[in-house]
Amino acid sequence: MIDGNIAEFIDQLYYGQEIVFIYKGKKYFIQGWWSEDKSETTMVLTEVNEKPFEGYIWEHHADKMSDCAEAFLDAPIWGGKNFIQIQEDVTWGDW
Fold first, then answer.
1. Model pTM score
2. SS3 state of residue 75
3. CB proximity list for 48: less than 8 A, separation 6 or greater
4. What phi and psi values does residue 45 have, to the nearest 5 degrees?
5. Of residues 94 and 47, more confidently modeled
6. Are 9 and 22 in contact (CB under 8 A)?
């Protein structure tokens, strides 16, 4: 991971924190949250660009945030590759 540590990234992901990262010139934003009654967690990935919001690239719901994080790490979002497979080319970004 460029400008960051993959272990720290994953740790923040497990807590549902807001993270911005760049891959192949595209900026992405991932975040997670708990439902009001804490019965469900949601994690979503969006591409940050000049266009109006067009929907999530990826979305997952689970009982625990760690399940959402693991689903994200395993999802073949980038040309059939998951985040772990592309992480060496990912820049941990900022707004």
1. 0.91
2. coil
3. 20, 27, 28, 29
4. -125, 130
5. 47
6. no
Query: Rg of the Cα trace of the chain?
Result: 13
Q: Residue 82 corresponds to which tokens in the numbers above?
A: 């998951």
Are 80 and 74 a contacting pair, CB within 8 Å?
Answer: no
Closest alpha carbon to 89 in 37, 33, 21, 32: 21
**What does the pLDDT read at residue 57?**
95
What are residue 41's DSSP bridge partners? 34, 62
pLDDT tens across 18-68, in order?
999 999 999 999 999 999 998 999 999 999 987 778 889 999 999 999 999
Shortest CA distance to 67 belongs to which of 41, 39, 37, 35? 41
Antiparallel, parallel or unpaired: β 26-34 and 58-62: unpaired
